[in-house]
Amino acid sequence: MLESLKRSVISLAAVICCLPAITCIAAGDEADAARETEQTQSLLSIARGKAYYTTCAACHGINGEGNPYMHGPRLTLQGPDYLHRQLRNYRQMARGGLADFYGWQMNGRANALAGDQAIRDVVAYIDLLPDTYAGDTLGGDIRLGKPLYDNYCASCHGGKAEGIPALNAPLLAGLEGWYQLEQLRKFKDGTRGSHEADVPGQQMKAAMAPIEDEQAMIDIIGYINSLVRPDTPR
To answer: What does residue 75 show for φ and ψ, rounded to 5 degrees?
Structure first.
């Protein structure tokens, strides 16, 4: 009887000793299942985003490379947070409006997306598209553009125009020269950056005050796009 009791105690002790390992295995299984679920949700989001993007491709290109004939800039160089914020601004009319024809078109496109999840989906798909860089400098004088950029742009957009996400300042180097000029004009005349909900836009509008004329804008763009080699994959 005593021996039987000893064996029972030993067996119970062995089971108790194994409990942490069993718990770890169970926790590991749960973690694996959670990762699989997350991966599945990510793939579903990308698949939905690809479907949504079919309405974007005519203006922004099949691979997000942009289409100057439709005034659609390339999208692939910008980070997901920036793209998400801009689509949200278009939905809320914080960007675009009747004074900005191409922005007004984007107001309609953004509102065709069925809510914030749809925005995240299309941004997730864009983030997978291959990056290419534009190299057009618009004939700007790089020597004149550099001090202007260093004095008025670099503190937010970075010394190499790589963008500083923490400041909500997007990458500039490699974006089309025509698009950059178009946006600088809009910030200068208040077409963009006047809505109270667009705080980064307001900052850009204020930053344009010292830029005297369009030639100065072109010189800045010339310097910005001298920082990258055209069509070099990131």
So the answer is: -110, -20
pTM: 0.80
Q: Which amino acid is at 124?
A: A
Q: Where are the alpha helices (DSSP H) in 127-195?
A: 142-152, 154-157, 177-189
Quick one: 100 and 120 in the same domain?
A: yes
How far is the C-alpha of 201 from the C-alpha of 43, rounded, in Å? Answer: 33
In a domain, 127, yes or no: yes
Question: pLDDT tens digit string along 39-50?
Answer: 788 899 999 999
Q: Are 76 and 129 in contact (CB under 8 A)?
A: yes
229: DSSP letter? -
Tokens linked to 1 = 């009887």
Report pLDDT digits (tens) over 75-84: 999 999 999 9
Closest CA to 177 of 95, 63, 66: 66
Separation of alpha carbons 114 and 56, rounded Å:
15
Could you report the per-residue pLDDT of 151-186, keeping only the tens digit for each? 999 999 999 999 999 999 999 999 999 999 999 999
pLDDT for 174 equals 94
Domain shared by 138 and 216, yes or no: yes
One domain for residues 70 and 34 = yes
Tell me the pLDDT band of 234, cut-offs 50, 70 and 90. very low
Question: From the CB of residue 206, how many other CB atoms can be counted at a distance below 10 Å?
Answer: 11
Whole-number Å distance between alpha carbons of 208 and 217? 9
**For residue 89, what are its two tokens?**
């601004």
Main-chain dihedrals φ then ψ at residue 72, nearest 5 degrees? -105, 115
What is the extent of the structural domain holding 216? 133-234
Task: Give yes or no for a contact between 208 and 184, defined as CB atoms under 8 angstroms apart.
Answer: yes
